[in-house]
Amino acid sequence: MEQRVRVLPDDSGVRVIVCMGDFDADTLGPLKTAATAAADDRAVRRIVLDVTDVTFADSSMLNVMILLLRTGRLVLAGTVPAQLGRLLDITQARPLFTTADTIEAARAL
Question: Which of 16, 66, 67, 99 sits a CA distance of 20 to 30 A from 28?
Answer without folding.
Answer: 99
